[in-house]
Design goal:
The protein has 207 residues and is an alpha+beta fold. Helix content is 16%, strand content 67%. It is built from 3 helices and 8 strands, in the order H-E-H-E-E-H-E-E-E-E-E. Strands 1-2-3-4-5-6-7-8 form an 8-stranded antiparallel β-barrel. The radius of gyration is 24 Å and the shape is globular. Residues 1-23 have low confidence and may be disordered.
Length: 207
């Protein structure tokens, strides 16, 4: 009787593992690409870059959900800098969003997926001017002082606001059981009286 119970238990465990494998499991993605500012922000920022990563769960081969973290950096264009009287500047955005994902062809070698959700965005903008700095170097004749030119932040501002994202991507299977992907995802941050809109295009790998 004990042997039968152990056999039944082993069978149930095997069925559970098979079901988990069939229905999905742990998921993650990582990637990088370029970010294009849109709308009002597109009038003052240059195209920049992004890095992204996410972890979550595939409930089935077709449906999953991830917590996505992203960092986007866009330089302020030369016309805006000249108008404001600064030498340099940058807009940086950190995003943390919860994003369900639907794979339209989960078992194909090449598929399409849609995703979207919302979360919190942190915006940081700074302006810089060139300045001289000093330091101590060491050479054949001992220590010596030197000067160098760099940039210092002369003005900055930051804010935390809610927002949402929505995107579509193409994924391709690999021999590592994961998939390479290329994705475009529209983002909107709700600021006081205006929106920050941008479109990151990201290339990466997901499991």
């Amino acid at each position: 009787m004990r042997t039968i119970a152990m056999a039944c238990g082993a069978a149930l465990c095997f069925m559970g593992m098979a079901s988990a494998q069939e229905n999905g499991g742990f998921a993650f993605n990582v990637g990088a690409g370029f970010t294009t500012p849109l709308g009002t922000v597109g009038q003052t920022q240059d195209t920049g870059w992004n890095v992204r990563g996410g972890v979550g769960w595939n409930f089935t081969p077709r449906v999953g959900a991830l917590v996505d973290l992203g960092y986007h950096s866009m330089g302020i264009n030369s016309t805006t800098l000249a108008d404001l009287g600064y030498a340099g500047g940058r807009l940086s955005i950190f995003s943390a969003t919860f994003d369900p994902i639907i794979h339209l062809n989960p078992r194909g070698r090449i598929g399409v997926y849609v995703t979207g959700g919302g979360g919190l965005y942190h915006e940081y903008q700074d302006f810089t001017q060139p300045a001289l700095g000093s330091g101590i170097g060491f050479g054949l004749f001992g220590y010596y002082p030197y000067t160098y030119q760099g940039n210092i932040v002369v003005a900055s501002a930051s804010t935390n606001k809610p927002g949402f994202d929505a995107g579509i991507g193409v994924e391709m299977g690999s021999r590592w059981h994961g998939k390479f992907f290329a994705e475009a995802r529209y983002n909107r941050i709700f600021n006081n009286g205006y929106h920050t809109d941008f479109l990151p295009v990201t290339f990466g790998f997901r499991w």
